[in-house]
Design a protein that fits this description.
By secondary structure, the chain is mainly α. The chain has helices spanning about 10-35, 45-55, 80-110, 130-135, 140-155, 185-200, 205-215, and strands spanning about 70, 160. α6 (about 185-200) packs across α7 (about 205-215).
């Protein structure tokens, strides 16, 4: 009777199977884990726009006329023209009354002296983020400040209202009420921060009032 002889099994052959199985398992595990290890999606467009806006370096306009701010009347529908005219006149009257009152208060605070000469326009650099930090505004409030400043002046320190003469980032009226220079972004923001706190309790309160009334 013939005898079938089997070749001896080497030590490597004994472990080769388990090692291969482990390698396959490891590969599959990596394939499963990899998608979950990918970095999170980038911030949404609004957040990215905010970050870009507050870190944009300021460049002064060459023309003073480019710094003028005009009040636009937004019309969503086509209402009665007489009603629109009535609202516009009421708005102008309210703005004129407010400007006259603030001018009178400023005049009384200076002993009735004549209005000082307009302060020099801002020619320095910097970004809104740097200005807010220098003015001592908490970073948690930067979003509120950005919303109001974007509406008031589009972050132009030299913005000047063509009709009332309000000046600066937060459109101080009169411009002389800002300690220092109303066109200096840090001086203007420091004054505005005090105004927001004194009148509305915080920048958040000022933002809430603005969104409800479209002014502050």
């Amino acid at each position: 009777m013939s005898v079938v002889k089997f070749a001896p099994v080497s030590r490597w052959s004994k472990v080769r199977g388990p090692v291969a199985a482990l390698a396959v398992a490891g590969f599959l595990g990596a394939a499963v884990v990899a998608p979950f290890a990918m970095p999170s999606a980038p911030a949404d467009a609004e957040t990215m726009a905010f970050q870009e806006r507050i870190h944009q370096q300021f460049t002064p306009n060459l023309s003073v006329d480019a710094d003028l701010v005009y009040t636009d009347v937004e019309v969503v529908e086509l209402p009665d023209p007489a009603e629109v005219r009535k609202k516009q006149e009421a708005k102008k009257a309210a703005e004129a009354e407010k400007a006259a009152k603030e001018a009178e208060e400023a005049s009384q605070s200076t002993g009735g002296s004549s209005s000082p000469a307009a302060p020099p326009r801002y020619t320095g650099g910097g970004s809104p983020a740097e200005w807010m930090a220098a003015a001592g505004i908490a970073e948690s409030d930067w979003g509120y400040v950005d919303y109001i400043a974007s509406k008031e002046s589009t972050w132009n320190p030299n913005a000047t209202n063509a009709s009332s003469g309000a000046c600066g980032l937060i459109q101080a009226l009169p411009c002389s009420k800002v300690p220092g220079n109303g066109y200096d972004p840090v001086d203007n923001l420091r004054w505005a921060s005090g105004y927001a706190t004194d009148r509305y309790g915080s920048w958040a309160g000022a933002y809430a009032f603005w969104t409800a009334n479209n002014w502050w």
